[in-house]
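Input.
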Amino acid sequence: MPDVNQVDQYLLELINRHAIPGFDGFFRVSTHFGSVAFWLAAFAAYSLIGKKKLIAAIFILALLFGTVINEDIKNIVQRERPEGAIVGASLTPVNYSFPSQHAQTAFMLAALATALLGIKYGLYAYLFAGYVALSRMYLGVHYLTDVAAGAVIGIVIAELVMLALYFNGVTKKTGLTGRFIQLGGITPPVEIATRGQMIVGLIIFLTGTGIATLAMLTSQYIVSLVFIALTYIAILKLPLAYAFFKA
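Output.
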């Protein structure tokens, strides 16, 4: 029975054997729409000129949060990129393969778009995310399990972000997890967060993520993930502190 790596390699070669030369350049350029740098720049620009600044800020924070997690997992797993003379070889990625950052980013943004903007925008976003994931395989820079894991991790991160925002009173909109919590009759201690409360939460998030990033840059990947987890737990505990001070 073939193992996962053999199946991954077979599917990758199958896609590349049926590649359409006219699409090579198109995929090579458009795959960058799954880039973290692209979306950080886009949302940063929108936060300056757009009306929905809070939504832009949420996307930016989620991108930062997700990037650290992705790099940590990549360096813990250390799966090498696909090899061989394939369409995307000229992209020459410099980091590890599992999980796909582009797929993770695309699906995370799709899940956030669904929660914050509604199912109509979310549907288009998910179709786009699927295209980005396919482009990573078409270009030969990721295996199927890389993009599948990236997609799952991205959606999970989006759910965690929306859950934290909901319980901290930043937004009344929720992801799928939050809706199940609402059905269970659980309501957040903070109805509407004040500006001061949001600033406290932001400081804790940036501090924890900053420490996690420093740990990542010094190759302490497990330590980095631990700080990410502790930061998230601290943010979830904030509503209890808010409720205490309000009382």
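Confidence is low (pLDDT under 50) at residues 85-90.
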